[in-house]
Protein backbone atom coordinates (compact mmCIF):
# COMPACT_ATOMS: atom_id res chain seq x y z
CA UNK A 1 0.00 0.00 0.00
CA UNK A 2 1.04 3.56 -0.51
CA UNK A 3 2.65 5.21 2.50
CA UNK A 4 1.25 8.61 1.51
CA UNK A 5 -0.70 9.96 4.52
CA UNK A 6 -4.39 9.97 3.69
CA UNK A 7 -4.93 13.33 5.38
CA UNK A 8 -2.14 14.92 3.33
CA UNK A 9 -3.92 14.60 0.05
CA UNK A 10 -7.35 15.14 -1.45
CA UNK A 11 -10.08 12.62 -2.15
CA UNK A 12 -12.01 11.63 -5.25
CA UNK A 13 -15.23 13.63 -5.52
CA UNK A 14 -18.53 11.95 -6.47
CA UNK A 15 -19.74 14.22 -9.28
CA UNK A 16 -20.55 11.88 -12.19
CA UNK A 17 -24.17 11.00 -13.04
CA UNK A 18 -25.69 8.17 -15.10
CA UNK A 19 -25.74 10.45 -18.15
CA UNK A 20 -22.07 11.35 -17.62
CA UNK A 21 -21.07 7.71 -17.18
CA UNK A 22 -23.05 6.44 -20.18
CA UNK A 23 -21.50 9.13 -22.38
CA UNK A 24 -18.07 8.15 -21.04
CA UNK A 25 -18.73 4.55 -22.10
CA UNK A 26 -20.16 5.44 -25.51
CA UNK A 27 -17.56 8.15 -26.03
CA UNK A 28 -14.75 5.70 -25.28
CA UNK A 29 -16.24 3.15 -27.69
CA UNK A 30 -16.89 5.60 -30.53
CA UNK A 31 -13.42 6.83 -31.33
CA UNK A 32 -11.36 5.99 -34.38
CA UNK A 33 -12.64 2.41 -34.57
CA UNK A 34 -15.77 3.12 -36.58
CA UNK A 35 -13.88 5.46 -38.88
CA UNK A 36 -11.27 2.91 -39.99
CA UNK A 37 -12.54 -0.60 -39.21
CA UNK A 38 -15.17 -0.98 -41.97
CA UNK A 39 -12.62 -1.26 -44.78
CA UNK A 40 -10.38 -3.68 -42.88
CA UNK A 41 -13.33 -5.85 -41.83
CA UNK A 42 -14.66 -5.97 -45.41
CA UNK A 43 -11.23 -6.98 -46.74
CA UNK A 44 -10.83 -9.77 -44.19
CA UNK A 45 -14.35 -11.16 -43.95
CA UNK A 46 -16.45 -9.67 -46.76
CA UNK A 47 -20.20 -9.59 -45.98
CA UNK A 48 -19.58 -11.96 -43.06
CA UNK A 49 -17.94 -8.99 -41.34
CA UNK A 50 -21.41 -8.30 -39.92
CA UNK A 51 -21.05 -11.58 -38.03
CA UNK A 52 -17.64 -10.41 -36.79
CA UNK A 53 -19.25 -7.29 -35.29
CA UNK A 54 -21.89 -9.44 -33.56
CA UNK A 55 -19.22 -11.76 -32.16
CA UNK A 56 -17.25 -8.79 -30.89
CA UNK A 57 -20.34 -7.20 -29.33
CA UNK A 58 -21.36 -10.45 -27.63
CA UNK A 59 -17.85 -10.97 -26.24
CA UNK A 60 -17.65 -7.45 -24.84
CA UNK A 61 -21.17 -7.70 -23.40
CA UNK A 62 -20.17 -10.87 -21.52
CA UNK A 63 -17.09 -9.12 -20.11
CA UNK A 64 -19.21 -6.04 -19.41
CA UNK A 65 -21.65 -8.08 -17.31
CA UNK A 66 -18.71 -9.40 -15.30
CA UNK A 67 -17.46 -5.87 -14.75
CA UNK A 68 -20.96 -4.88 -13.61
CA UNK A 69 -20.62 -7.19 -10.62
CA UNK A 70 -17.14 -5.95 -9.74
CA UNK A 71 -17.87 -2.26 -10.33
CA UNK A 72 -21.06 -2.30 -8.25
CA UNK A 73 -19.56 -4.31 -5.36
CA UNK A 74 -16.18 -2.55 -5.27
CA UNK A 75 -16.40 0.96 -6.77
CA UNK A 76 -12.71 1.86 -6.70
CA UNK A 77 -10.54 4.25 -8.70
CA UNK A 78 -8.47 2.29 -11.19
CA UNK A 79 -10.66 -0.74 -10.50
CA UNK A 80 -9.50 -2.58 -13.62
CA UNK A 81 -6.07 -3.13 -12.03
CA UNK A 82 -7.13 -3.25 -8.39
CA UNK A 83 -9.69 -6.04 -8.71
CA UNK A 84 -7.01 -8.65 -9.64
CA UNK A 85 -4.94 -7.45 -6.68
CA UNK A 86 -7.92 -7.88 -4.35
CA UNK A 87 -8.60 -11.43 -5.52
CA UNK A 88 -5.10 -12.79 -6.26
CA UNK A 89 -2.54 -10.46 -4.68
CA UNK A 90 -0.15 -7.68 -5.59
CA UNK A 91 1.82 -9.70 -8.17
CA UNK A 92 -1.22 -10.27 -10.39
CA UNK A 93 -2.32 -6.68 -9.80
CA UNK A 94 1.07 -5.42 -10.92
CA UNK A 95 1.03 -7.54 -14.09
CA UNK A 96 -2.44 -6.32 -14.98
CA UNK A 97 -1.49 -2.75 -14.14
CA UNK A 98 1.48 -2.98 -16.49
CA UNK A 99 -0.49 -4.35 -19.45
CA UNK A 100 -3.40 -1.95 -18.85
CA UNK A 101 -1.05 1.02 -18.68
CA UNK A 102 0.44 -0.01 -22.03
CA UNK A 103 -3.05 -0.37 -23.51
CA UNK A 104 -4.51 2.87 -22.18
CA UNK A 105 -1.55 5.18 -22.75
CA UNK A 106 -1.02 3.86 -26.30
CA UNK A 107 -4.75 4.21 -26.98
CA UNK A 108 -4.57 7.94 -26.22
CA UNK A 109 -1.80 8.16 -28.81
CA UNK A 110 -3.66 6.10 -31.40
CA UNK A 111 -6.66 8.44 -31.24
CA UNK A 112 -4.49 11.46 -31.96
CA UNK A 113 -2.91 9.52 -34.83
CA UNK A 114 -6.40 8.84 -36.21
CA UNK A 115 -7.28 12.55 -36.01
CA UNK A 116 -4.14 13.45 -37.93
CA UNK A 117 -4.64 10.77 -40.61
CA UNK A 118 -8.19 11.90 -41.40
CA UNK A 119 -7.27 15.60 -41.18
CA UNK A 120 -4.62 14.91 -43.84
CA UNK A 121 -7.50 14.62 -46.34
CA UNK A 122 -7.62 18.42 -46.02
CA UNK A 123 -4.00 19.12 -45.09
CA UNK A 124 -1.75 16.60 -46.90
CA UNK A 125 1.32 18.15 -45.25
CA UNK A 126 0.34 16.31 -42.03
CA UNK A 127 1.48 13.04 -43.63
CA UNK A 128 4.79 11.97 -45.13
CA UNK A 129 4.20 12.13 -48.93
CA UNK A 130 2.84 8.81 -50.22
CA UNK A 131 2.37 7.44 -46.71
CA UNK A 132 -0.03 7.48 -43.75
CA UNK A 133 2.84 8.19 -41.35
CA UNK A 134 3.10 11.56 -39.64
CA UNK A 135 5.28 14.30 -41.01
CA UNK A 136 7.08 16.58 -38.55
CA UNK A 137 4.15 19.01 -38.78
CA UNK A 138 1.72 16.13 -38.28
CA UNK A 139 3.53 14.99 -35.16
CA UNK A 140 3.34 18.47 -33.62
CA UNK A 141 -0.41 18.53 -34.36
CA UNK A 142 -0.69 15.23 -32.46
CA UNK A 143 1.30 16.74 -29.59
CA UNK A 144 -1.03 19.76 -29.47
CA UNK A 145 -4.03 17.44 -29.16
CA UNK A 146 -2.39 15.52 -26.30
CA UNK A 147 -1.71 18.79 -24.48
CA UNK A 148 -5.35 19.81 -24.98
CA UNK A 149 -6.57 16.51 -23.46
CA UNK A 150 -4.19 17.05 -20.56
CA UNK A 151 -5.52 20.57 -19.92
CA UNK A 152 -9.18 19.41 -20.00
CA UNK A 153 -8.42 16.79 -17.35
CA UNK A 154 -6.17 18.88 -15.11
CA UNK A 155 -8.75 20.93 -13.23
CA UNK A 156 -11.71 18.69 -12.30
CA UNK A 157 -13.52 15.55 -13.37
CA UNK A 158 -16.70 17.57 -14.00
CA UNK A 159 -14.88 19.84 -16.46
CA UNK A 160 -13.82 16.71 -18.32
CA UNK A 161 -17.37 15.27 -18.21
CA UNK A 162 -19.01 18.44 -19.56
CA UNK A 163 -16.54 18.57 -22.47
CA UNK A 164 -17.15 14.89 -23.18
CA UNK A 165 -20.95 15.22 -23.15
CA UNK A 166 -20.85 18.08 -25.68
CA UNK A 167 -18.46 16.18 -27.97
CA UNK A 168 -20.55 13.00 -27.72
CA UNK A 169 -23.66 14.61 -29.19
CA UNK A 170 -21.84 15.41 -32.44
CA UNK A 171 -20.10 12.03 -32.41
CA UNK A 172 -23.39 10.17 -32.76
CA UNK A 173 -25.15 12.47 -35.22
CA UNK A 174 -22.58 11.79 -37.97
CA UNK A 175 -22.65 7.96 -37.84
CA UNK A 176 -26.46 8.05 -38.00
CA UNK A 177 -26.31 10.35 -41.05
CA UNK A 178 -23.76 8.03 -42.69
CA UNK A 179 -26.04 5.03 -42.14
CA UNK A 180 -29.09 6.81 -43.56
CA UNK A 181 -27.31 8.20 -46.65
CA UNK A 182 -25.47 4.98 -47.55
CA UNK A 183 -28.65 2.93 -47.20
CA UNK A 184 -30.25 5.14 -49.88
CA UNK A 185 -27.65 3.67 -52.30
CA UNK A 186 -27.77 0.14 -50.92
CA UNK A 187 -26.98 -2.70 -53.37
CA UNK A 188 -28.29 -5.99 -51.87
CA UNK A 189 -26.37 -7.99 -54.47
CA UNK A 190 -23.06 -6.84 -52.92
CA UNK A 191 -23.69 -9.21 -50.02
CA UNK A 192 -23.64 -12.31 -52.24
CA UNK A 193 -21.52 -11.35 -55.25
CA UNK A 194 -18.47 -13.29 -53.99
CA UNK A 195 -20.25 -15.36 -51.35
CA UNK A 196 -21.26 -14.38 -47.84
CA UNK A 197 -18.01 -15.70 -46.33
CA UNK A 198 -15.33 -15.38 -49.05
CA UNK A 199 -12.39 -16.03 -46.71
CA UNK A 200 -14.09 -18.66 -44.59
CA UNK A 201 -14.47 -18.72 -40.83
CA UNK A 202 -10.85 -17.72 -40.28
CA UNK A 203 -11.57 -14.41 -42.04
CA UNK A 204 -14.46 -13.75 -39.65
CA UNK A 205 -12.21 -14.54 -36.68
CA UNK A 206 -9.31 -12.43 -37.92
CA UNK A 207 -11.62 -9.45 -38.45
CA UNK A 208 -12.55 -9.47 -34.76
CA UNK A 209 -8.95 -8.76 -33.71
CA UNK A 210 -6.92 -7.62 -36.71
CA UNK A 211 -9.83 -5.80 -38.38
CA UNK A 212 -10.19 -3.37 -35.49
CA UNK A 213 -13.55 -4.65 -34.20
CA UNK A 214 -12.48 -5.51 -30.68
CA UNK A 215 -10.54 -2.25 -30.53
CA UNK A 216 -13.68 -0.37 -31.54
CA UNK A 217 -15.74 -1.96 -28.77
CA UNK A 218 -13.45 -1.82 -25.78
CA UNK A 219 -14.58 1.28 -23.95
CA UNK A 220 -15.87 -0.25 -20.73
CA UNK A 221 -12.82 0.07 -18.51
CA UNK A 222 -13.03 3.90 -18.31
CA UNK A 223 -16.47 3.49 -16.70
CA UNK A 224 -15.01 1.28 -13.98
CA UNK A 225 -11.87 3.40 -13.63
CA UNK A 226 -13.86 6.45 -12.45
CA UNK A 227 -16.10 4.42 -10.11
CA UNK A 228 -14.98 6.36 -7.04
CA UNK A 229 -16.33 9.56 -8.62
CA UNK A 230 -19.80 8.25 -9.50
CA UNK A 231 -23.02 9.06 -7.68
CA UNK A 232 -24.91 5.89 -6.69
CA UNK A 233 -22.26 3.61 -8.25
CA UNK A 234 -24.10 0.36 -7.38
CA UNK A 235 -26.98 1.39 -9.67
CA UNK A 236 -25.24 3.65 -12.16
CA UNK A 237 -22.28 1.49 -13.21
CA UNK A 238 -24.24 -1.61 -14.39
CA UNK A 239 -26.79 0.46 -16.32
CA UNK A 240 -24.09 2.54 -18.04
CA UNK A 241 -22.03 -0.53 -18.96
CA UNK A 242 -24.91 -2.47 -20.51
CA UNK A 243 -26.35 0.56 -22.35
CA UNK A 244 -22.95 1.39 -23.83
CA UNK A 245 -22.43 -2.09 -25.30
CA UNK A 246 -25.96 -2.59 -26.63
CA UNK A 247 -26.24 0.81 -28.31
CA UNK A 248 -22.77 0.59 -29.85
CA UNK A 249 -23.45 -2.91 -31.24
CA UNK A 250 -26.58 -1.72 -33.05
CA UNK A 251 -24.76 1.27 -34.58
CA UNK A 252 -21.65 -0.69 -35.58
CA UNK A 253 -23.65 -3.45 -37.31
CA UNK A 254 -25.71 -0.89 -39.26
CA UNK A 255 -22.56 1.03 -40.25
CA UNK A 256 -20.88 -2.11 -41.59
CA UNK A 257 -24.03 -3.17 -43.43
CA UNK A 258 -24.40 0.28 -44.99
CA UNK A 259 -20.73 0.27 -46.05
CA UNK A 260 -20.92 -3.20 -47.63
CA UNK A 261 -24.08 -2.36 -49.58
CA UNK A 262 -23.05 1.19 -50.46
CA UNK A 263 -19.89 0.26 -52.37
CA UNK A 264 -20.46 0.67 -56.13
CA UNK A 265 -20.80 -2.90 -57.40
CA UNK A 266 -18.31 -2.43 -60.26
CA UNK A 267 -15.55 -1.85 -57.69
CA UNK A 268 -16.06 -5.38 -56.36
CA UNK A 269 -15.06 -7.19 -59.54
CA UNK A 270 -11.76 -8.22 -57.98
CA UNK A 271 -13.29 -9.33 -54.70
CA UNK A 272 -13.31 -7.87 -51.21
CA UNK A 273 -9.60 -8.22 -50.44
CA UNK A 274 -8.65 -4.75 -51.61
CA UNK A 275 -11.38 -2.76 -49.87
CA UNK A 276 -9.06 -1.51 -47.13
CA UNK A 277 -6.83 0.01 -49.82
CA UNK A 278 -9.61 1.30 -52.09
CA UNK A 279 -11.30 2.93 -49.09
CA UNK A 280 -8.40 3.84 -46.82
CA UNK A 281 -10.66 6.44 -45.15
CA UNK A 282 -13.80 4.27 -45.49
CA UNK A 283 -16.76 6.60 -44.96
CA UNK A 284 -15.03 9.68 -46.37
CA UNK A 285 -14.02 7.80 -49.52
CA UNK A 286 -17.34 6.06 -50.06
CA UNK A 287 -19.22 9.33 -49.57
CA UNK A 288 -17.12 10.89 -52.35
CA UNK A 289 -17.68 7.83 -54.57
CA UNK A 290 -21.44 8.23 -54.15
CA UNK A 291 -21.35 11.98 -54.79
CA UNK A 292 -22.00 13.07 -51.21
CA UNK A 293 -19.29 15.70 -50.92
CA UNK A 294 -20.99 17.38 -47.98
CA UNK A 295 -21.11 14.06 -46.11
CA UNK A 296 -17.42 13.45 -46.79
CA UNK A 297 -16.68 16.88 -45.28
CA UNK A 298 -18.81 16.07 -42.25
CA UNK A 299 -17.06 12.72 -41.79
CA UNK A 300 -13.66 14.43 -41.75
CA UNK A 301 -14.96 16.89 -39.14
CA UNK A 302 -16.22 13.98 -37.06
CA UNK A 303 -12.94 12.13 -37.65
CA UNK A 304 -11.19 14.88 -35.76
CA UNK A 305 -13.84 15.18 -33.05
CA UNK A 306 -14.63 11.49 -32.37
CA UNK A 307 -11.07 10.27 -31.75
CA UNK A 308 -10.37 13.47 -29.82
CA UNK A 309 -13.29 12.70 -27.52
CA UNK A 310 -12.06 9.16 -26.97
CA UNK A 311 -8.49 10.29 -26.42
CA UNK A 312 -9.78 12.78 -23.86
CA UNK A 313 -11.66 9.99 -22.04
CA UNK A 314 -8.58 7.80 -21.85
CA UNK A 315 -6.49 10.75 -20.71
CA UNK A 316 -8.98 10.84 -17.83
CA UNK A 317 -9.06 7.07 -17.21
CA UNK A 318 -5.35 6.30 -17.43
CA UNK A 319 -4.30 8.36 -14.36
CA UNK A 320 -6.86 6.35 -12.36
CA UNK A 321 -5.19 3.17 -13.65
CA UNK A 322 -1.79 4.56 -12.64
CA UNK A 323 -3.23 5.48 -9.24
CA UNK A 324 -4.67 1.98 -8.72
CA UNK A 325 -1.44 0.35 -9.91
CA UNK A 326 0.68 2.44 -7.54
CA UNK A 327 -1.62 1.74 -4.58
CA UNK A 328 -1.77 -1.99 -5.13
CA UNK A 329 1.95 -2.33 -5.78
CA UNK A 330 3.07 -0.13 -2.90
CA UNK A 331 5.64 1.70 -5.05
CA UNK A 332 6.06 5.29 -6.25
CA UNK A 333 3.73 6.66 -3.56
CA UNK A 334 3.78 10.11 -5.19
CA UNK A 335 1.59 8.67 -7.97
CA UNK A 336 -1.23 8.17 -5.45
CA UNK A 337 -1.40 11.84 -4.50
CA UNK A 338 -4.75 13.50 -5.25
CA UNK A 339 -4.98 17.28 -5.55
CA UNK A 340 -6.90 18.70 -2.57
CA UNK A 341 -9.04 21.12 -4.56
CA UNK A 342 -9.72 19.34 -7.84
CA UNK A 343 -9.81 15.72 -6.71
CA UNK A 344 -7.49 14.83 -9.63
CA UNK A 345 -4.46 12.47 -9.25
CA UNK A 346 -2.19 15.00 -10.96
CA UNK A 347 1.18 13.19 -10.68
CA UNK A 348 -0.44 10.21 -12.39
CA UNK A 349 -1.84 12.57 -15.03
CA UNK A 350 1.63 13.94 -15.78
CA UNK A 351 2.95 10.37 -16.22
CA UNK A 352 0.03 9.63 -18.54
CA UNK A 353 0.92 12.62 -20.71
CA UNK A 354 4.55 11.52 -20.93
CA UNK A 355 3.63 7.96 -21.92
CA UNK A 356 1.10 9.05 -24.52
CA UNK A 357 3.72 11.31 -26.13
CA UNK A 358 6.20 8.43 -26.11
CA UNK A 359 3.83 6.22 -28.12
CA UNK A 360 3.72 8.81 -30.92
CA UNK A 361 7.50 9.09 -31.25
CA UNK A 362 7.96 6.38 -33.93
CA UNK A 363 5.46 8.35 -36.07
CA UNK A 364 3.16 5.29 -36.38
CA UNK A 365 0.03 4.89 -38.48
CA UNK A 366 -3.32 3.79 -37.10
CA UNK A 367 -2.90 0.38 -38.74
CA UNK A 368 0.53 -0.16 -37.16
CA UNK A 369 -0.77 0.21 -33.60
CA UNK A 370 -4.21 -1.38 -33.79
CA UNK A 371 -3.36 -5.06 -33.21
CA UNK A 372 -1.09 -4.35 -30.24
CA UNK A 373 -3.64 -2.06 -28.59
CA UNK A 374 -6.48 -4.55 -29.20
CA UNK A 375 -4.59 -7.48 -27.68
CA UNK A 376 -3.42 -5.43 -24.70
CA UNK A 377 -6.96 -4.17 -24.04
CA UNK A 378 -8.42 -7.68 -24.18
CA UNK A 379 -5.76 -8.96 -21.79
CA UNK A 380 -6.68 -6.19 -19.34
CA UNK A 381 -10.32 -7.32 -19.54
CA UNK A 382 -9.73 -11.09 -19.55
CA UNK A 383 -8.79 -11.40 -15.88
CA UNK A 384 -12.15 -10.02 -14.67
CA UNK A 385 -14.11 -13.33 -14.92
CA UNK A 386 -11.41 -15.14 -12.92
CA UNK A 387 -11.46 -12.36 -10.34
CA UNK A 388 -15.24 -12.65 -9.92
CA UNK A 389 -15.05 -16.43 -9.56
CA UNK A 390 -12.24 -16.21 -6.99
CA UNK A 391 -14.03 -13.55 -4.91
CA UNK A 392 -17.27 -15.53 -4.95
CA UNK A 393 -15.29 -18.39 -3.49
CA UNK A 394 -13.25 -16.46 -0.91
CA UNK A 395 -15.65 -13.59 -0.07
CA UNK A 396 -19.20 -14.97 -0.37
CA UNK A 397 -20.43 -12.41 2.16
CA UNK A 398 -19.38 -9.40 0.03
CA UNK A 399 -22.36 -7.19 -0.77
CA UNK A 400 -23.06 -7.56 -4.49
CA UNK A 401 -25.79 -5.10 -5.57
CA UNK A 402 -25.49 -6.49 -9.10
CA UNK A 403 -24.96 -10.25 -9.25
CA UNK A 404 -24.43 -11.87 -12.65
CA UNK A 405 -26.90 -14.68 -13.19
CA UNK A 406 -25.68 -17.76 -14.98
CA UNK A 407 -22.09 -16.94 -14.07
CA UNK A 408 -21.19 -20.64 -14.00
CA UNK A 409 -21.46 -20.45 -17.79
CA UNK A 410 -20.76 -16.76 -18.47
CA UNK A 411 -17.52 -16.74 -16.44
CA UNK A 412 -15.58 -19.50 -18.20
CA UNK A 413 -17.03 -18.73 -21.64
CA UNK A 414 -16.15 -15.02 -21.46
CA UNK A 415 -12.59 -15.87 -20.40
CA UNK A 416 -12.19 -18.44 -23.18
CA UNK A 417 -13.55 -16.00 -25.77
CA UNK A 418 -11.06 -13.38 -24.56
CA UNK A 419 -8.32 -15.96 -25.04
CA UNK A 420 -9.45 -16.52 -28.63
CA UNK A 421 -9.47 -12.80 -29.38
CA UNK A 422 -5.90 -12.46 -28.11
CA UNK A 423 -4.85 -15.52 -30.15
CA UNK A 424 -6.48 -14.15 -33.31
CA UNK A 425 -4.25 -11.06 -33.00
CA UNK A 426 -1.48 -13.15 -34.56
CA UNK A 427 2.00 -14.35 -33.65
CA UNK A 428 3.76 -11.05 -34.34
CA UNK A 429 1.66 -9.36 -31.66
CA UNK A 430 1.24 -12.25 -29.23
CA UNK A 431 4.93 -13.21 -29.09
CA UNK A 432 6.31 -9.94 -27.79
CA UNK A 433 3.28 -8.71 -25.83
CA UNK A 434 2.82 -11.91 -23.81
CA UNK A 435 6.57 -12.47 -23.67
CA UNK A 436 6.90 -9.04 -22.08
CA UNK A 437 4.37 -10.05 -19.42
CA UNK A 438 6.24 -13.28 -18.64
CA UNK A 439 9.45 -11.25 -18.30
CA UNK A 440 7.66 -8.79 -15.98
CA UNK A 441 6.57 -11.72 -13.79
CA UNK A 442 10.18 -12.89 -13.45
CA UNK A 443 11.46 -9.38 -12.74
CA UNK A 444 8.82 -8.82 -10.04
CA UNK A 445 9.75 -12.02 -8.21
CA UNK A 446 13.49 -11.36 -8.45
CA UNK A 447 13.15 -7.77 -7.21
CA UNK A 448 10.87 -8.73 -4.32
CA UNK A 449 13.34 -11.39 -3.21
CA UNK A 450 16.21 -8.92 -3.48
CA UNK A 451 14.48 -6.37 -1.24
CA UNK A 452 13.66 -9.01 1.37
CA UNK A 453 9.93 -9.44 0.88
CA UNK A 454 8.27 -11.92 3.23
CA UNK A 455 8.79 -15.36 1.69
CA UNK A 456 5.37 -16.71 2.64
CA UNK A 457 3.57 -13.66 1.21
CA UNK A 458 5.58 -13.77 -2.03
CA UNK A 459 5.03 -17.52 -2.34
CA UNK A 460 1.27 -17.01 -2.04
CA UNK A 461 1.36 -14.27 -4.68
CA UNK A 462 3.29 -16.53 -7.07
CA UNK A 463 0.85 -19.43 -6.54
CA UNK A 464 -2.05 -17.08 -7.22
CA UNK A 465 -0.50 -15.71 -10.42
CA UNK A 466 0.94 -18.84 -12.05
CA UNK A 467 -2.32 -19.56 -13.85
CA UNK A 468 -1.93 -16.31 -15.82
CA UNK A 469 1.61 -17.24 -16.86
CA UNK A 470 0.26 -20.64 -17.93
CA UNK A 471 -2.40 -18.85 -19.98
CA UNK A 472 0.21 -16.71 -21.70
CA UNK A 473 2.49 -19.67 -22.48
CA UNK A 474 -0.36 -21.74 -23.95
CA UNK A 475 -1.44 -18.92 -26.28
CA UNK A 476 2.17 -18.28 -27.34
CA UNK A 477 2.74 -22.00 -28.03
CA UNK A 478 -0.43 -22.44 -30.10
CA UNK A 479 0.26 -19.15 -31.88
CA UNK A 480 3.71 -20.33 -32.93
CA UNK A 481 2.26 -23.49 -34.50
CA UNK A 482 -1.17 -22.22 -35.53
CA UNK A 483 -2.62 -20.45 -38.56
CA UNK A 484 -2.68 -16.86 -37.28
CA UNK A 485 0.89 -15.91 -38.13
CA UNK A 486 2.36 -19.26 -37.02
CA UNK A 487 3.85 -22.05 -39.11
CA UNK A 488 0.48 -23.74 -39.66
CA UNK A 489 1.35 -27.12 -38.13
CA UNK A 490 -1.89 -26.95 -36.13
CA UNK A 491 -4.55 -26.43 -38.80
CA UNK A 492 -7.63 -24.26 -38.52
CA UNK A 493 -10.04 -24.61 -36.71
CA UNK A 494 -8.14 -26.93 -34.36
CA UNK A 495 -5.81 -24.14 -33.27
CA UNK A 496 -8.77 -22.03 -32.11
CA UNK A 497 -10.41 -25.08 -30.50
CA UNK A 498 -7.18 -25.79 -28.59
CA UNK A 499 -7.03 -22.22 -27.27
CA UNK A 500 -10.70 -22.30 -26.25
CA UNK A 501 -10.47 -25.63 -24.39
CA UNK A 502 -7.16 -24.76 -22.72
CA UNK A 503 -8.58 -21.39 -21.63
CA UNK A 504 -11.51 -23.14 -19.96
CA UNK A 505 -9.12 -25.28 -17.90
CA UNK A 506 -6.96 -22.29 -16.98
CA UNK A 507 -10.05 -20.35 -15.89
CA UNK A 508 -10.85 -22.98 -13.25
CA UNK A 509 -7.20 -23.06 -12.20
CA UNK A 510 -7.22 -19.29 -11.69
CA UNK A 511 -10.55 -19.32 -9.85
CA UNK A 512 -9.25 -21.96 -7.43
CA UNK A 513 -5.96 -20.20 -6.62
CA UNK A 514 -7.22 -16.83 -5.44
CA UNK A 515 -6.17 -15.43 -2.08
CA UNK A 516 -7.66 -17.11 0.99
CA UNK A 517 -10.32 -15.16 2.88
CA UNK A 518 -7.83 -14.25 5.62
CA UNK A 519 -5.59 -12.42 3.12
CA UNK A 520 -8.30 -10.30 1.46
CA UNK A 521 -8.31 -6.51 1.91
CA UNK A 522 -11.61 -5.52 0.31
CA UNK A 523 -12.18 -2.62 2.70
CA UNK A 524 -9.30 -0.66 1.16
CA UNK A 525 -11.31 2.31 -0.14
CA UNK A 526 -10.52 5.65 -1.79
CA UNK A 527 -12.70 7.79 0.42
Task: Describe the structure in your own words.
The protein has 527 residues and is an all-alpha fold. It has a single domain, classed as Amino acid/polyamine transporter I (Up-down Bundle). Helices cover 70% and strands 0% of the residues. The protein contains 20 helices and no strands. The chain has helices at residues 18-29, 33-45, 49-73, 79-88, 90-119, 136-154, 157-183, 200-209, 213-217, 221-225, 233-262, 275-278, 282-289, 293-329, 346-360, 366-394, 407-424, 427-450, 455-481, 494-512. The two termini are 15 Å apart.
List the helices and strands and how they pair.
Elements: H1 18-29, H2 33-45, H3 49-73, H4 79-88, H5 90-119, H6 136-154, H7 157-183, H8 200-209, H9 213-217, H10 221-225, H11 233-262, H12 275-278, H13 282-289, H14 293-329, H15 346-360, H16 366-394, H17 407-424, H18 427-450, H19 455-481, H20 494-512
The CATH superfamily name is Amino acid/polyamine transporter I
Number of strands: 0
CATH topology category name: Amino acid/polyamine transporter I
- Strand-residue proportion: under 5%
Amount of helix = 55-70%
Structural class: mainly alpha
Task: Tell me the distance between the termini.
Answer: 15 Å
Biggest sheet record: none
Overall geometry comes to globular
The radius of gyration computed from the alpha-carbon positions, rounded to a whole number of angstroms, is 22 Å
Low-confidence stretches: 1-10
